[in-house]
Amino acid sequence: MPALAHPLPTTLDEAHQLIVRQQERIAGLEKQAARVVVLEQQVETLQKQLEELVAKLGSSSRNSSKPPSSDSPEQRAARPNARGVAARMAGNPAIHATNGRYIPPNK
Question: Per residue in 17-39, pLDDT tens?
Answer without folding.
Answer: 999 999 999 999 999 999 999 99
